[in-house]
Amino acid sequence: MYKKCSLFFVLSLFLGILLVPGSVSAQEDIGGSPGESVWAVTDVRVIGYLDISEEDSWEYIGDNRVEAYQHAFHAAAEEGQSRVFNVLNLVPAVNGHHFSSVTSMGYDSLGTDGLMNCGEEVSALVCTDKSGLGMSAGFEGELARGSVHTNIRMSPIMSPTAFYNFSGRVAEGRVATGVVVRSGSGNAEGGLASQSNYSQQITAEGEFYISHTARVGLGKGWSSCIW
Predict the structure, then answer these.
(1) Of the candidates 81, 86, 61, 83, the residue with the CA atom closest to the CA atom of residue 71
(2) What is the pLDDT of residue 147?
(3) pLDDT > 50? residue 5
(4) Tens of pLDDT, residues 46-55
């Protein structure tokens, strides 16, 4: 059952944003033992050339629970002023792990023709004997002048809850952002009893402000995760 959960997670929820190999990186591997808090901080400020990419993943398979998290981001610019900031956190709780990622990226061409090509991608899955919830979210953009911010969380309190917030204040550039959330319930005897899907994609270009928030949770009484 849990192998099927992981396969569903990889094939159905992965947004597929292309990553750019980086030559500047500040990275900590978040792979830790179950029950151990893990976190990583990236803070890069550059005037001139920037090329950074980072990717982390974490997975826990227990008797009654599967959790899988993947996070990646990239940013590249040949000139101008760049700022890339990310805090990645995974904290154990009584009934699972709290996963969160906060990211900010900003760029100013400083009067040149420069652009920052940037993007972020997060996929998260929680599958237990009573509930199942998966989310994939992220953005891809080209900034001539402006900033973007994301806040992504997966929480196991009472029942799994997924949260995604994206905001961008751009004077010149292009951004595409999207989120996909899927959940389902059922049991081995009756099969899939119910399922729900949420997805949204937003694209903007020129001068704009975007604020997009999605929050999805599972109610009590879900019989099993059978994906």
Answers:
(1) 86
(2) 97
(3) no
(4) 999 999 999 9
CA angle 76, 174, 9 (to 5 degrees): 75
| The CA-based dihedral angle spanning residues 206, 213, 123, 90, taken in that order and rounded to the nearest 10 degrees | 120
Task: Read off the tokens for 81.
Answer: 């002023």
Q: What angle do CA 8, 149, 32 make, to 5 degrees?
A: 50
Cα three-residue angle 161-162-167, rounded to 5 degrees: 140
* Token duo for residue 132: 């199942």
Region 108-134 average pLDDT: 88
Selected residue with higher pLDDT from 214 and 5: 214
- What is the rounded distance in angstroms from the CA atom of residue 185 to the CA atom of residue 199? 19
pLDDT of residue 9: 36
Q: Is the pTM of this model over 0.85?
A: no
Tell me if residue 86 falls in helix, strand or coil.
Answer: strand
Helix (H) or strand (E) holding 8: helix 2-13
Cα dihedral 174/69/92/99 (nearest 10) = 10
- Show the tokens assigned to 83: 């700022």
Show the tokens assigned to 209: 């402000």
Structure tokens at 36: 């151990």
In the DSSP assignment, the letter for residue 111 is: T
Cα 226 → chain centroid:
24
DSSP string, 158-218: SS-EEEEEEEEEEEEEEEEEEEEEEEEEEETTTEEEEEEEEEEEEEEEEEEEEEEEEEEE-
